[in-house]
Amino acid sequence: NQNDIKNADKTVKRITDKENPKVKEMIEYINEQKSNTKLSEAAEKYEKKDYQGALTILNLLINEKLGGYMPYYYRAMVYDAQGKYKEAATDYEKVKSKDPAIALVYYSLGVDYDSLKDFERAVQNYQKFLELSTEENDYTKYARERIKQSK
Predict the structure, then answer these.
(1) Which of 41, 87, 117, 126 has the most CB atoms around its CB within 10 Å?
(2) Which of 151, 110, 148 lies closest to 129 in space, CA to CA?
């Protein structure tokens, strides 16, 4: 209740009955709070172009299976910034497999596959992005233009 996640984590680790539903709930909450904090730290490092620092945090979250698909999403963004399009596409594909309704992931995949000269997959992802998009913006215009150019 005091939002002291560090001490809450220490306390929960001392509890022996990890199968108790209340304890499970506390552990889940603590892990969620820790992963949100770490994701914020990684995003800050990304914004400051400290890509290695961001990757260190994101890889830790991924290895500990914390944060759901978000660490993969942010890591893909870091890889994009580094020009590592194949690695970025791999992570965006993981995000897509966990939540196929995130339009921006399809756009990002389209751009990455474009960069990798895999135009067929790029177009497929641009089309799915347009299906899921609800507004007209620079991304939708670009996706339409790339689809048109591929024909």
Answers:
(1) 126
(2) 110
C-alpha to C-alpha distance for 39 and 36, rounded to whole angstroms: 5
Q: How many residues does the chain have?
A: 151
Q: Please choose, from the candidates 101, 96, 107, 106, the residue with its C-alpha nearest in 3D space to the C-alpha of residue 139.
A: 107
Could you report the per-residue pLDDT of 33-50, keeping only the tens digit for each? 888 999 999 999 999 999
Pair 98, 67: CB distance under 8 Å: no
Paired tokens of 35: 């992963």
Q: What is the pLDDT of residues 77-88, one digit of tens each?
A: 999 999 999 999
Distance, C-alpha 128 to centroid of its chain:
18
Amino acid at 39: L
pTM of the model: 0.82
Under a CB-based contact definition with an 8 Å cutoff, are residues 71 and 56 in contact? no
Round to whole Å and give the CA distance between 111 and 122: 7
